[in-house]
Specification:
By secondary structure, this protein is an alpha+beta fold. It has one domain: Multidrug-efflux Transporter 1 Regulator Bmrr, Chain A, CATH 3.20.80. Helices cover 17% and strands 40% of the residues. Strands 1, 2, 3, 4, 5, 6, 7, 8, 9 and 10 form a ten-stranded antiparallel beta sheet that branches. A hairpin with a 5-residue loop joins strand 7 and strand 8. The longest helix has 14 residues. The radius of gyration is 15 Å and the shape is globular.
Length: 162
């Protein structure tokens, strides 16, 4: 069941790419690289790595997505890796245990729940349906090196409210 949680600002480092649904690996495969980059600098993840959806155009099969890793204190970016901050605020959050392929259904159920509650997202829509999100996250709580079976993964969705 979704719930509303208040989060503070959260620093992170990440990369951003414009992709399609079939080229998601261009972002997804970079999480390990970002974690390695942090460790080389004596910094470590301060939570689950995530994907942040900046814009979604399902009709045009175009997504702007970040792969990010939270840090305890801000770290200066370098090259393609940038430093950012997830905004403070109220988020609708829900946890999912199972294959990431099931997240589309989990997301749809969460969006419907929020609509039924009369909640408004930190999101704007363009004519044609492109959505620009203030902060829409998928956090991957399972280390794939420890649990390679995708059916046993734990994922949290966190979408910021207006």
């Amino acid at each position: 069941m979704p719930e509303i949680v208040e989060f503070p600002e959260r620093p992170y480092v990440g990369i951003r790419k414009t992709i399609t649904m079939t080229s998601f690996n261009l972002v997804g495969d970079r999480l390990g690289e970002i974690i390695g980059w942090l460790v080389q600098r004596g910094a470590y993840p301060a939570g689950a790595p995530f994907f942040r959806y900046d814009s979604i155009d399902m009709a045009g099969d175009r997504l702007v997505v970040q792969a990010g890793v939270p840090v305890a204190t801000p770290v200066e970016g370098e090259g393609e890796i940038f430093a950012g901050t997830l905004p403070a605020g109220r988020y609708v959050t829900v946890s999912h245990h199972g294959h990431p392929d099931q997240l589309m259904g989990v997301t749809d159920a969460m969006l419907k729940w929020a609509a039924d509650q009369g909640l408004t997202w930190d999101m704007t829509s363009e004519e044609g349906g492109t959505e620009h999100w203030g902060c829409r996250l998928e956090l991957y709580n399972t280390n794939p090196a420890e649990e390679p079976d995708l059916n046993n993964w734990d994922t949290d969705l966190q979408f910021r409210l207006a």
